Amino acid sequence: MDSGVLIDFISIPVTVGFTSATSVIIAVSQLKGLLGLKFESSTFLDCLLKVYQNIGNYRANDTILGVTSIIILLMLRKVKDIKLFGPNGKPTNKQRTIMKGLWLLSISRNALIVVACSIISYWCYRPNSEPYVTLIGKVRSGLPPLKFPPFGTEINGTSVSFINMCWDLGSSIILVPVIAVLGNVAIAKAFASGNSVDATQELYCLGVCNLLGSFVSSMPVTGSFSRSAVNHASGVRTPMGGLYTGILIILSLSLLTPYFYFIPKAALAAVIISAVIFMIEYEIVKPMWKSSRKDLIPTFATFVLCLGIGVEFGILVGVGINIMLLLIPSARPFLHIEMKKLRTGLDYLLVTPENSLYFPAVDFMRAKTDRAAVKIGQSKLPVVVDCKHILDADFTAAKGIAGLIMDFKRRKQPLCFYNPRKSVLAVLQGVCVDEIVHCFTYDELEQTLNDINGSGNPAELKDIVHTTSQQSHETPLLNRRQH
């Protein structure tokens, strides 16, 4: 079985809600660094409240540096779109070189801003005075030691075994990896630009990364939306970018950590905010409204819940709502009900379910078919169930059909199943034994109805239901047509 099949339930509406909510959360979380505020927060709402409460303590230098950095980053973002043309309408070699330089300047804007702001802060730094802007501070240098992962630990002098750690985690030992995988695939789909994402490969990748990471005391590995957004904004297009990033991180931890001290937090906040604000997909709401409004439900639910209770549970609820929308047609299938006429002139009521028969739908179909048949009154008009769209059925559905047959038998009203699949018929006959009347061709249907109907055509048939929908709406209409 494909191990990534469950991940395929993360639809585009859920991904849009997750992406937009995560972008808003990250942008708001960076306001602290942008304004030079100092506080601890845990959730989006808590961070928003803390910013409001501490806004009076903002540092002007941090704010000016951060806002200026954002403006420059947004301007450099557009530099790559500048086109130069020569007298003949085509760029000259010099113009091509200039455009290439502008493109390089645009995609390296994040690094340039961080380096430029770090130089400014270093130039303004005075050892015995408070920095003009809030700095990153000391970063521990060196690489973590390579060793086998420990299967036990010690807390407050008490030895804790691996089994005890698993026991203390409880359901989180399953929930955390599931949420991590869902978040990782959602991030992958957000940056896939419409291309397909192999969820199985994502699972393998996460498994290998976490397995190898345990040998260097790594935290649990999963996708990072903020870093992915910065990579995306910097022009990274392939996984090869990860190789360059890894090499740069190793070199930086080994050689450059003393210089990280002078990186302003406002500059990093500006880089992240400038990257994530373009991931808020508000423009997709209009086409979704025009094409499929029901998809807005998981989109807004995921967005609001990610902001309110956290991205982990928000995306789980979004996937759950999406699955419910998939199951509703199975529970409330469309039933097309209309009057038909045989070549011999005999009228009958044709009921066509537009979906397979499973246990959530059987009571709905039985009630609707019974209601339409009863409206005929004393006419005893034959009812034909067209099974062309019924691809499968289960035991509960067969029991419901058996009850439907008994209802018609008590009223002495003919009921026939037309063109059922052999697999479906086998399920129905397994419960209904030999009581089910069925036929596979129109000639058989005509012969069967003429044989079992002895009362002729009904006199008045004005109250027949033409169509019943999933929402149980009924439109009284008599539609007589030749088969």
From TrEMBL:
UniProt-listed Gene3D superfamilies: STAS domain
TM helices/strands, residue ranges: 6-28, 102-123, 169-191, 203-221, 241-261, 266-285, 297-328
Annotated ranges, domain SLC26A/SulP transporter: 4-300
Location within or outside the cell: Membrane
Keywords, sorted A to Z: Membrane, Transmembrane, Transmembrane helix
Gene Ontology terms: biological process: transmembrane transport
Any one of the GO CC terms: membrane
STAS domain location: 349-440
Membrane topology field: Multi-pass membrane protein
Protein name, UniProt field: Sodium-independent sulfate anion transporter isoform X1
Organism, as annotated: Aphis craccivora (Cowpea aphid)
